[in-house]
């Protein structure tokens, strides 16, 4: 079965850190871009960060640049998002996507 599975979400205080993981099963997205998206309550889903496969070029939405770091391990079919200095505005369900396939999402809540 082809699927993506995110993990690593949770509740964290402002200024804290979390590391999200996204594992692919049933396929290996080695030759494709892979990205993180998020959707906050009442808002549209937005792109957070993505990483190219060929040269590792990355993109970050301005809101997270300097705080989040995307990486991938093709040998493990895994995508990561290291999130530092989290803010309440980062609260959302975080999804990974590649090759038109979405994961089920993982909740990130930043609150004191």
Structural shape: globular
Mean pLDDT rating: 95
Give the oligomer, counting copies of the same chain as homo and different chains as hetero.
Answer: single chain
Strand content: over 45%
In total, the number of strands is 11
Summary keywords:
112 residues; mainly beta; seven-stranded mixed β-sheet; four-stranded antiparallel β-sheet; 11 strands
Report on this model:
With about 110 residues, the chain is mainly β. It has no helices and eleven strands. The strands form two sheets. Strands 2, 4, 5, 6, 9, 10 and 11 form a seven-stranded mixed sheet that branches. A four-stranded antiparallel sheet has the order 1-3-8-7, with no helix packed on it.
SSE map:
Blueprint: E1 3-7, E2 10-12, E3 18-25, E4 34-39, E5 46-51, E6 58-60, E7 68-73, E8 78-83, E9 92-98, E10 101-102, E11 106-110
Parallel strand pairs: 2-11
Antiparallel strand pairs: 1-3, 3-8, 4-5, 4-9, 5-6, 7-8, 9-10, 9-11
Task: Describe this structure in a few short sentences.
This protein is mostly beta strands and 112 residues long. The chain contains no helices and eleven strands.
């Amino acid at each position: 079965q082809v699927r993506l599975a995110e993990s690593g979400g949770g509740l964290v205080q402002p200024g804290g850190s979390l590391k999200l993981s996204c594992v692919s099963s049933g396929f290996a997205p080695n030759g494709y871009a892979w990205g993180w998206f998020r959707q906050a309550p009442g808002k549209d889903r937005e792109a957070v960060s993505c990483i190219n496969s060929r040269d590792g070029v990355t993109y970050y939405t301005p809101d997270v640049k300097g705080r989040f770091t995307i990486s991938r391990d093709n040998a493990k079919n895994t995508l990561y998002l290291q999130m530092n200095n989290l803010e309440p505005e980062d609260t959302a369900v975080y999804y990974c996507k590649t090759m038109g396939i979405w994961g089920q999402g993982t909740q990130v809540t930043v609150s004191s």
